[in-house]
Amino acid sequence: MTRRLILSYVLLAAFVLLVLELPLGLTFAGRAKDNLLADVERDSRVLAGLVEERVEKQDAPAVAAISQRYADETTGRVVVTDPLGVSLVDTARPNSEPRDFSTRPEFVSALGGTQASGIRRSSTLDEELAYVAVPISSDGRVTGAVRISFPTEEVREEVLKNWLRLGLLSALVLAAAASLGWLVARWAVKPVAALEQGAGLLAAGDLSGRAEVDRGPPELQHLAETFNQMAAHLEILVGSQQAFVADASHQLRTPLTAMRLRIESLEDALEVPVDEKDRARLRADAEAISSEVERLTHLVDGLLALARSESTLGLESVDVAAVTTQAVDRWLPLAEESGVQIVLDCTSAAKARVVRGGLEQMLDNLLDNAIGVAPPDTSIHVSVANASGQIEVSVQDEGPGLTVQEQSRATSRFWRAPGAEPGGSGLGLSIVAELAAASGGSLKLSDPADHQGLVVTIGLLVATS
């Protein structure tokens, strides 16, 4: 990923440089040649004006002196011809015989009264030349021509230097782009590497693995936060599962041991004849085994309910008053058998967000507990009301109640109040607490304001739609 990011930055910078520097370099080269021709054209016109009278008088030495002085100062070559195109002066060959330039294209134009200029390669000199040929006129008559030529070597060197400067600038820009790409890649990739390391720790069983959330792009920071939340949730779930297995193993061992001992006692008794007294004892052992089986059944049912409460169930919007009314109707016959009344007070018609089937389980556990501890001729008050932006479902009994210390332990798994009747699993309030937390709500235990007993209140979030 780092190499790809660096390559993308370098390619982008190279494209921008190509778009900007190629036209710039070509423009500089063209302008340098144009400037050279403009300078030569100006000098040619000035020189033509200086030698005009001398050419008309055929004063070759004077023309040669002026032309040679210019050639010495500028390193240019000057050729001056008469009207027939025969050279009067050639600074490149000062002592040579006159030559005929009448067939040269630039002299043909100049002797015809038209200026000629351009850049061409000289086959005799084997170099590129920039030249300008202008007519020498007197009273409207062309009396000769002047051609000044310069090698373009200096211009080419200047153009080459410009290309080298642009190339050096490009190299610096590409190096800067590569460095920037490396820095960005390091900034972006390091959180990914930390995420990968954290995921590797989780895969290896180390649930403490976390990713850095304060480095990298905002998207990766958000991803790291989500990963850490997942890891923390997974750590809680695994820890809860381990505690669940340990608690379940401990709680199941006691009734199973009791059953094994009583069954062994029955087996020993069946090997010998029994009298009425022994038969009564065997009957008591059988009833005890049945009681232990029933207790074990309740315990397993509670463990299954607790396991379901810890699973990741989806939230749903439920009519709290309707579900509470149905729960009261279900438990009313059992309450009447125990001589207990259930009083329902629903002052809220709002809906709450609860895990699927969770409110029914919570109410079943609370009503079961309340009926189990409520003395005859007492009442259980069930209420549904709005409070502090939540929907509160309360179940209040008139039983023995719990001390403050006992209330703090009541939601622990397998905890049972001192003096509680046998047969319970100690999981009821644990299940309610798990379901309330999974729904984003809360569970609170408190004392009634005016009498003995216990008030259990479930706080649920109001459904927004």
UniProtKB/TrEMBL annotation:
It is found in: Membrane. Its EC number is 2.7.13.3. Residues 186-239 form the HAMP domain. Keywords: Kinase, Membrane, Phosphoprotein, Transferase, Transmembrane, Transmembrane helix, Two-component regulatory system. SUPFAM superfamilies: ATPase domain of HSP90 chaperone/DNA topoisomerase II/histidine kinase, HAMP domain-like, Homodimeric domain of signal transducing histidine kinase. One of its GO terms (cellular component) is membrane. Gene3D superfamilies: 1.10.287.130, 6.10.340.10, Histidine kinase-like ATPase, C-terminal domain, PAS domain. InterPro entries: HAMP_dom, HATPase_C_sf, HATPase_dom, His_kinase_dom, HisK_dim/P_dom, HisK_dim/P_sf, Sig_transdc_His_kin-like_C, TCS_sensor_his_kinase. GO terms for molecular function: phosphorelay sensor kinase activity. This is histidine kinase.
